Amino acid sequence: MQTSNTTESKLSKAYKGIAMEGPIAVWYAQITRNDLARHRLIAGQLRKHIVAGCHVLEIAPGPGFFCIELAKLGSYEIMGMDISKSFVEMARRNAAAAGVKVEFQQGNASDMPFATESFDFAFCQAAFKNFTQPIQAIAEMYRVLRPQGSAVIIDLRRDASRQEIRHHIKSMGLNRINELMTTWAFQNMLLKNAYTLSEMETFVAQTQFGKCHIEVDDIGFQVWVKK
User: Fold this and answer.
1) Where are the chain's structural domains?
2) What's this model's pTM, rounded to 2 decimal places?
3) Could you say which of 15, 101, 137, 198 is the most buried, measured as most Cβ atoms within 10 Å of its Cβ?
4) Among 3.30.450.40, 3.30.2310.20, 3.30.470.20, 3.40.50.150, what is the CATH number of 5-9+16-158+195-226?
């Protein structure tokens, strides 16, 4: 099913997250570096869906930690695409320091700079809620995936409770200041931008994927789609 321009325009929203450039990008990278165990865990979980030689795309990889952890686990062709110039530069440095081969490129999730049917697997973590055109972003995932390719969106769910969020932040191992700043971000920005499971199903239904499989995970969800 093709994306409806009328529906998309109603669902599009201005970017409400923090602009991830300069010092803000550096602060975010420090926070996520403390959470490397989670990146390793997710990389290990997703590895079973990715065979050797696969072309993998991470959409909005930030400082690139997940891409790097995945590259350590197998022989894949990995590309990370982020709208932030600061993150692209940072991710390239991080990959070089880790001694892994991962490419990073600047680009927009709703208008990806890649040819049709370029990737076997696509991944987007903790960023989808901030995309200005959610339906078009999913439609672009469909376009760049090869036949039988799969994609997963992992993000915060809007109905996550305050107790669940507090427990999640505590598990990140942050110092007191960063813990307070992260808590503020969840309460004042992230939850407001987050989607419900039914909203995600509606988005997917308006693309050529048509349907999805959703798993609830901690304070978030995993939305799985297959071409």
Assistant:
1) 5-9+16-158+195-226
2) 0.80
3) 137
4) 3.40.50.150
